[in-house]
User: Fold this.
Amino acid sequence: MGIKLPSTDGRVVTVLGGGVLGRRIACSWAAYGFDVVIRDPSKEQRIGAIHYCQTSFGQYSDKEERGSVSAVEDLAEAVKLAWLVIEAVPENINLKISTFADLEKLAAADAILTSGLIIKRITCLVASSKPPTAPRSRNLIHLAYLRMLLLHKSAAVSAGAS
Assistant:
């Protein structure tokens, strides 16, 4: 079953976790023109993630138009405008499950929820969630899906320019 791509107008990509993986995910989305909010409870990780993005865009894209990158501590603030939420918290299954439980309450109903989960399939994170949550949850590891989202954004921008 497919999911409907929500509107991205005025909305952001939120990355949960500003560590090694999260900052790279954030930078790759911002390098392609998406505004990104990084959420991390650690001030040091937030500062490091912003610095990484500001100095590494060129490793991800040669596009001149870049998205903005900001970082916050509060989860509700991080997801309030998100059309896509990418979970990149440490590989602790209980932390990931509780994160998805929080997302179910805080993220917009049409937001796509993804995980860079390596240790299990995403279905284990949303097993106890309400029916609308599971269908909009995906493993980020499916790069073809990620590519489709990027192509959609590029096509929408090109169509708007003509």
Remarks:
- The chain is about 40% helix and 15% strand.
